Amino acid sequence: MRLLENSAFDELFQTFESSAFHLEVADQYDLPEESEPIRRFLAGEPDDLAWQKPWLDLIRRATSAGRRVERLRVVSVPHRDYTRWLLTISASNIEAGEDIRWLRRDAVNGLALAADDFWLFDRERVVFTLFAADGSFAGGAETRDRAIVAHCRRVRDELWPVAVPHARYAR
Question: Cβ(120)–Cβ(68) under 8 Å?
Answer without folding.
Answer: no
